[in-house]
TrEMBL record, chain A:
Region of interest: Disordered: 74-93, 482-520
Source organism per UniProt: Oncorhynchus tshawytscha
Similarity-based family: Belongs to the NPR3 family.
Gene expressing this chain: NPRL3
Protein name, per record: GATOR complex protein NPRL3
Keyword annotations: Lysosome, Signal
Domain of life: Eukaryota
InterPro entries: HTH_NPRL3, Npr3
A family per Pfam: HTH_NPRL3
UniProtKB/TrEMBL annotation, chain B:
InterPro entries (alphabetical): NPR2-like
GO biological process, one term: negative regulation of TORC1 signaling
Family: Belongs to the NPR2 family.
Organism this protein belongs to: Oncorhynchus tshawytscha (Chinook salmon)
Listed name of the protein: NPR2 like, GATOR1 complex subunit
UniProt GO cellular component terms: GATOR1 complex; vacuolar membrane
Length: 611, 381
């Protein structure tokens, strides 16, 4: 079965979705978006605010200057505190995010955000009422070195020297700590780029000079004309750095993906996972994302969220060839192990690149598409008639509507069942494309079969949970069947712990032993069953199927999977068994096994938000 | 309850001295804030006018300082203004939101004291601050609360309040259920509305029904339940009907893995007066819940397992612990004439529960109405 990724424009969809609700984003106070970006410096000319975005409206400029008068943005004055003995400070009318930060004048921001030099090189965090400022103040030169050398006969330099600078993001005070951490990270990255460019060609000093010149100009104009204007609006067309900061802000508020070219030279790229990994209206915390990525198995597959062409176009020129090879070779029907072979990379590399793509929201992890996969409508799917998804589906697959297609998955449906629809007019290939489309948009979840060993309790004392009756999982030691724990973003690890062959060599026992009822096999079976209680052993041995040594041996061998944490496909992969073999075994021993179907918790992260 | 893991390391009183400028007048314990630290952060402690009366938290050198700068203007003060700030210091990693109301209150108290009796500007009375700060530090760290009389007419009352997450919006078709035994509930601690509806919270009545039977306005019931939700006293489940469909979640395995959940579950779902149900039966019942299977179907298929199990409590427990989830029906009107109005409720956004609650129809009536409409399809999720 060959799957051809069609040219869906997911990024375009996302952007158009956001354009509609852009205004409401700003007003609603999105907890994962910044409220403002501010650039401040400290130097021989004192503390200066060079640029801020969004601009203050002109009305705010004037009111914030007169702090003695009751500003609409001022919270409690001392008088109010007296009235409310509980000390609850409640604003009269809730301020919008913009007003929260607009209430701070340029001067006060310069004072509080341009820190002393001993706060440089570290995370800066300041909270004032409902606003949180985060940045990474960076030293440009050691304060002592700005002294002009005594032996230098040239006149004192006219150009003011900058000692430190800081790119600060203002957020809502109740932003998630991981969002704050991410914003700090971006501030630090921009700072590193700016520091580099400053040392190389005084880029920051030049831009600062431009910005201050425009500010002075506008102030002069205001004094002569009397009509106040925002200097920052004038700065934008003249300063690349200002445009970069505006772009960073805009990107953070919409797609969450930032790509800047500082001085048209150094690239700063960054993504806010909270914006990218949103399911059901909530963001996925980065730590959870990382945990899930570490639990990926070689039998999983990588599903790209953009077309191959679109994805390749987004990559920088100097990107790794391994990444390109992987993107070109990957497919929803191929598992990661096969991908490694096809792309001629080792499995560890595949894992790392796959994790990278997933982190950046360019791909998700699924189980490879095949006939027997069973899918169901995700509880978080947006099935509204008027959703942008419905519209996009109609455009992609003319003549079909999304709700009708989704209704088919109200009951779990296997891919083979789906491919035999009542109306044969629909092409088979197109049906597969539809399923891929729906998976990419997290509309479907895949169900797997899990098995648990539970023996009927003995007659003597039913209903009591004696220590012996502790379920298997508590007694059998956990055998780890997971991918190397050394998988982390960007850190090289040895490939010793990964093999390209199926791990069944290590974990399954009795594979190479001859069949039949040899004493060795019997001993093996006994050992495997030793972890059971006497009662459990008796019940199992009394099952008719247990009379067949082959069946009993297979059962004993797979015993450690029967604790509800390993689904059918995983057992198949690890033990090199066919689905029919397993199903037959489950059926034979059904009197002691309980079977249930649900999504795989390891990858269900990509389909459902965490509690 | 104690003051859940917030430890205040230091309390300081800082002011603007007419000749020495910003300084720390008192701090307990002594010498906690170094000269270096204060130099770095003083701009956030004794601030420009624009920042006065704001709660300011600054992180520096591994510490977090929370304060609220106060300025009282009067001719009698040298420089015509009195500037001071009573703040707290914690470790930089502490979550300090719960301390903010306390800092704000303290700034209010001191302001009052100064305005009433010149408590701070008078050198003699100012010295009383030190023992006050000591007591505050000790009691807040020990119990999370402090009551201190300052003088004849002023007493400080402070309490650390745990910050909780905002609760979900409570809908009229949601069903509140107690998370702990109802008997542990002290009625008199709660407001009148809550007291009035308490008897009707049984884990089966939904909000609309509680409102009708308790004769309390719907929105008041919603707010009261939301309040109970905020404190973790209740959780929400969906309406129970024998026609409901549920399915298992990955969490169902916790019934096997976690001994305490097992115990709790078996005790909860066993029919009153019966011997305790066995794990196998209960687990089989949960696993018997699948898409397409109604509770009624489950009862007929697993009648043996249900001998000692109350199916309503089984479902209730399963929902409360997220071992199972409800599959709701969502009707969508996919085709219609150009002339007919666009669908209002049959858009895929409103479940049967919601539609029936809003329109007063029963499930059966809604089913009959929709089954005969070829333009409407139904999604389950």
């Amino acid at each position: 079965m060959y799957i051809h990724s069609s040219s869906f424009d997911l990024q375009g969809e996302r952007k158009s979705m956001y354009k509609q609700s852009e205004n409401s984003f700003f007003k609603r106070g999105e907890k994962t978006s910044p409220i403002s970006v501010i650039l401040v410096t400290s130097g021989s000319r004192g503390n200066k605010l060079l640029f801020r975005y969004p601009f203050q409206r002109v009305a705010d400029c004037t009111s914030s200057l007169t702090t003695k008068q009751r500003s609409p943005y001022a919270l409690n004055t001392t008088g109010d505190v007296l009235e409310d003995p509980d000390g609850d400070s409640r604003e009269q009318t809730p301020l919008t995010d913009q007003q929260l930060v607009a209430g701070f004048s340029d001067i006060i921001l310069a004072t509080i955000l341009a820190t002393k030099s001993d706060m440089c090189g570290k995370k800066f965090e300041l909270k004032i009422d409902n606003v949180r400022f985060v940045g990474h103040p960076t030293l440009l030169q050691h304060p002592h070195t700005i002294q002009v050398s005594k032996t230098d006969p040239s006149p004192k330099r006219e150009m003011p020297t900058m000692i430190l600078f800081s790119v600060v993001f203002a957020l809502r005070a109740n932003a998630d700590p991981s969002v704050i951490s991410c914003m700090h990270n971006l501030s630090r990255r921009i700072a590193i780029a700016l520091q580099h460019e400053e040392r190389r060609c005084q880029y920051l000093t030049r831009e600062a000079k431009l910005m201050l010149a425009v500010q002075d100009e506008v102030t002069n104009m205001t004094e002569t004309d009397g009509s106040p204007q925002s200097p920052f609006r004038q700065i934008l067309p003249k300063c690349k750095l200002a445009r970069d900061l505006k772009e960073a802000y805009d990107s953070l508020c919409t797609t969450g993906v930032v790509r800047l070219h500082i001085n048209n030279w150094l690239e700063v790229s960054f993504c806010l996972p909270h914006k990218i990994h949103r399911v059901g209206g909530n963001h996925v915390p980065p730590e959870a994302l990382e945990r899930s990525l570490k639990a990926i198995r070689p039998y999983h597959a990588l599903l790209l969220l953009d077309s191959e062409k679109a994805l390749l176009a987004q990559l920088p020129l100097d990107c790794s060839p391994a990444l390109v090879r992987l993107i070109k070779t990957c497919s929803a029907v191929k598992n990661l192990q096969q991908l490694a072979q096809d792309a001629d990379l080792n499995l560890l590399q595949i894992f790392q690149i796959a994790a990278h793509l997933v982190y950046w929201g360019k791909a998700i992890i699924v189980y490879p598409l095949c006939e027997n996969n069973v899918y169901m409508l995700s509880p978080h799917a947006n099935i509204s008639l008027y959703s942008p998804l419905a519209e996009a589906f109609g455009q992609q697959f003319p003549g079909h509507d999304l709700p009708s297609m989704l209704a088919k998955f109200s009951l779990p449906l296997s891919l083979s069942e789906f491919r035999n629809p009542l109306d044969a007019s629909v092409q088979e290939a197109q049906l597969i494309q539809m399923v891929v489309w729906m998976l990419q948009r997290r509309l479907l979840i895949q169900l797997h079969t899990y098995v648990c060993l539970l023996v009927p309790p003995s007659e003597e004392e039913p209903g009591l949970l004696r220590d012996e009756e502790l379920p298997l999982v508590a007694r059998v030691g956990g055998r780890s069947l997971s991918t190397p724990s050394a998988l982390s973003f960007g850190s090289p690890t040895s490939s010793d712990d990964m093999t390209l062959t199926s791990p069944s060599m290590d974990n399954s026992s009795a594979e190479l032993l001859p069949g039949g009822d040899s004493p060795l096999n019997r001993r093996m079976t006994e050992t495997l069953l030793a972890s059971l209680t006497e009662h459990e052993r008796q019940v199992i041995l009394n099952i008719p199927a247990a009379q067949s040594p082959e069946d009993l041996r297979m059962f004993a061998r797979l015993l450690h999977y029967f604790r509800g944490h390993h689904h059918l496909e995983e057992i198949m992969y690890n033990e090199n068994m066919r689905r029919s073999q397993l199903k037959t075994l489950f059926d034979k021993f059904r009197s002691v096994l309980v079977v249930t179907n649900h999504e795989d918790p390891v990858i269900s992260l990509f389909q459902s938000p965490l509690e | 309850r104690g003051s859940s893991c917030i430890r205040i390391e230091c309390i300081f009183f800082s002011e603007f001295h007419p000749t020495l400028g910003p300084k720390i007048t008192y701090q307990v314990p002594e010498e906690y804030i170094s000269r270096e630290l204060f130099d770095t952060v003083q701009v956030y402690i004794i601030t420009k006018p624009e920042l006065q009366n704001k709660l300011i938290t600054v992180t520096a050198m591994g510490k977090k300082l929370i304060g609220c700068p106060v300025c009282i203007e009067h001719k009698k003060y040298s420089r015509n203004a009195l500037l001071f700030n009573l703040g707290l210091v914690c470790d930089a990693r502490t979550k300090t939101c719960a301390l903010e109301p306390i800092v704000k209150k303290l700034s209010g108290y001191l302001t009052t004291l100064e305005l009433e009796s010149g408590f701070i500007s008078n050198e003699e009375s100012k010295q009383k601050l030190l023992p006050i700060m000591s007591t505050l530090l000790e009691e807040l760290n020990a119990t999370g609360a402090c009551t201190l009389p300052i003088d004849e007419s002023n007493t400080i009352n402070l309490k650390l309040i745990e910050q909780r997450r905002d609760p979900l919006i409570v809908q009229e078709y949601d069903v509140p259920v107690f998370t702990q035994c109802k008997d542990h509930f002290i009625k008199s601690q709660w407001d009148l509305t809550t007291q009035q509806i308490l008897a009707y919270i049984d884990g089966f009545r939904h909000i609309q029904k509680i409102s009708a039977e308790a004769d309390v306005e719907l929105n008041l019931v919603r707010i009261a339940v939301q309040n109970l939700l905020y404190y973790g006293v209740v959780t929400l489940v969906s309406i129970f009907q024998y026609s409901n469909v549920y399915c298992t979640t990955p969490t169902v395995q916790s019934l096997i893995d976690d001994r305490s959940i097992q115990e709790e579950c078996l005790n909860y779902v066993t029919k009153k007066g019966q011997k305790r149900a066995c794990l196998r039966d209960v687990f089989q019942l949960y696993c018997g819940l699948t898409p397409g299977t109604t509770v009624r179907d489950l009862c007929s298929r697993y009648s043996q397992q249900l001998q000692r199990v109350d199916e309503r409590r089984l479902i209730q427990y399963g929902l409360m612990k997220a071992l199972i989830r409800r599959l709701q029906k969502y009707p969508v009107k996919v085709t219609r004439d150009e002339r007919s109005r666009p669908p209002r409720l049959y858009t895929g956004c409103h479940s049967y529960d919601e539609i029936c609650c809003k329109t007063g129809m029963s499930y059966k009536e809604l089913d009959e109405r929709l089954e005969n409409d070829p333009n409407i399809i139904v999604c389950w999720k």
